[in-house]
Design brief:
This is WD40 repeat-like protein. It comes from Sistotremastrum niveocremeum HHB9708. Keywords: Repeat, WD repeat. The structure is a single chain. The protein has about 240 residues and is mostly beta strands. The chain has 2 domains: about 10-90, no CATH class; about 105-240, YVTN repeat-like/Quinoprotein amine dehydrogenase (Methylamine Dehydrogenase, Chain H). It has one helix at about 15-25, and strands at about 10, 30-40, 45-55, 55-65, 65-70, 75-80, 85-90, 105-110, 115-120, 125-130, 140-145, 150-155, 165-170, 170-175, 195-200, 205-210, 215-220, 225-230, 235-240. The chain has a 4-stranded antiparallel β-sheet with strand order 1-2-3-4. Strands 8-9-10-11 form a 4-stranded antiparallel β-sheet, with no helix packed on it. The two termini are about 45 Å apart.
Length: about 240
């Protein structure tokens, strides 16, 4: 069976900032960023690209065997003739969502309606973000700091997109009311309200799953057990233990 070697292209992480500086800065009319190309079994190619301001914007001048072309605001193509790379697609983010500074992210979830994103953090806090971020309110989001006392291990949105399931290393799960649309950007009220707190595991919870419309959930833990929960009552209905439980 033949093996296909897929080439790899890497670009300086802040190359978009370099391009924008040349476009917008009065004192900078030319700058450069690096591009590297790799293919298994062949010598890697490391080059640079000059960004030069023109009357229409900027142009790119490749050096040392690499080229780059901008197709639109979010797509570029990279080439390296020596390694047989042509039009390697490079996609860049349309927008960035930044949780609170200095918070390590341990879990992430996107609501089914794709309007909200939630991040769980090492300190047990959970942040809810609007998608896409609002340009007028500096990323409309809210953070709760008192849901869990240890790192968040998993997050799941219920089918309604306005309720969130969190599990944690503190051995517990929480059901949260989470809806940014009900909290205007100017509001200081937190949209994350705990409506259920589920406790039975004896060690950190590693994963969870929501069944159907969300009346039943299951959780797995380092204690070697899988537990089923009835959310209408907020109680455990069944436990499946491993041989080591």
């Amino acid at each position: 069976m033949s093996t296909l070697a897929i080439p790899l292209v890497t670009v300086q992480h802040d190359f978009q900032s370099v391009i924008n500086d040349v476009k917008d800065s009065l004192g900078v009319t030319r700058d450069k960023f690096w591009v590297s190309c790799y293919r298994k079994g062949e010598r890697s190619v490391h080059g640079s690209v000059d960004v030069v301001r023109t009357s229409d914007g900027v142009e790119f001048v490749g050096n040392d065997g690499v080229t780059i072309e901008q197709r639109n605001d979010n797509n570029f193509v990279v080439g390296c003739q020596e390694l047989g790379i042509r039009d390697a697609l490079l996609r860049v983010p349309r927008s960035s969502i930044r949780p609170d500074a200095h918070k390590k992210i341990t879990a992430i979830a996107v609501s089914p309606d794709t309007r909200q994103l939630s991040t769980g953090h090492e300190d047990g806090s959970i942040t809810l973000h609007q998608i896409p971020p609002s340009p007028n309110v500096n990323d409309h989001h809210r953070t709760t700091k008192s849901i869990h006392v240890a790192s968040i291990s998993s997050l799941k949105f219920f089918p309604s997109s306005s309720v969130l399931l969190s599990s944690s290393s503190d051995f517990s799960l929480s059901i949260l009311s989470a809806d940014l649309s009900s909290s205007p950007p100017s509001s200081t009220s937190a949209p994350l309200t705990r409506v259920r707190h589920l406790k039975a595991h004896r060690r950190p919870i590693t994963s969870s799953i929501i069944f159907g419309r969300g009346r039943t959930i299951a959780s797995g833990s380092l204690d070697g057990s899988i537990r089923l929960w009835d959310l209408s009552q907020g109680v455990q209905t069944r436990m499946i233990g491993s041989t080591s439980y």
